[in-house]
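Suppose you are handed only these lines of text.
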Amino acid sequence: MASGTRNVTRFWEWGRKIVCVGRNYADHAKELNNAVPTEPVLFLKPPSAYVREGSPILVPAYSSNLHHEVELGVVIGTGGTAIARASAMDHVAGYALCLDMTARDVQDACKAKGLPWTLAKAFDTSCPVSEFVPRERIPDPGDVRLWLRVNGQLRQEGNTAQMIFPVPYLISYVSAIMTLEEGDLILTGTPAGVSSVREHDELQAGIEDIVTMTFRVDRH
Ligand SMILES: CC(=O)CC(=O)C(=O)O
Ligand SMILES: [Mg+2]
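From them, the structure of the protein bound to magnesium ion can be written out as follows.
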């Protein structure tokens, strides 16, 4: 797992890119009145978006509607360009539970103006991540349950079997556009149930009971 002096189990320290897939669950696309896509919708977060348990998720000062999106993250082990779907899983080192924190009011405004989603999706602490989960612990990333509670209340529950574009397809698709490198993370989209969080809320999420994490929300 180690590469030089770095260890991919601490991928968030590598400064690698975070590639996010949007609208990959039909029930989530519909809840936001978005069309169900015929090819993956992609956007990026910078490595400064990472936040780890013990530090708070910060509501951007310019947003009054911060949403949680629970997602399966795929950690790339072996990089590649134009990776074939058939060999895509050979490039996976493991997984992480991720939140794609989204300033929904800002995203709506960007959409209305035809602007990119950077302000809504790429701010500091917009990508809370769990511990690294070795690939052996998730033999089929196309069949795991994701869940998220806010202050103890279940808000999101979905199975990765509902993904429109499964993990091997995404690895192949993304790597044909931008080279994937060791330590990159792909966020694979969120199931339905996204909702607002506020200062002092507590978010708990899990990939089944394989990995769980807890974060508090704070304001800048
Ligand atoms: C509408 C979105 O924010 C798309 C997205 O991130 C998703 O997971 O779906
Ligand atoms: Mg998302």
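What can we learn from it? The pocket of magnesium ion (ligand 2) is lined by residues 20, 22, 69, 71, 100, 189-190 (CB under 6 Å). The chain has one domain: 19-219.
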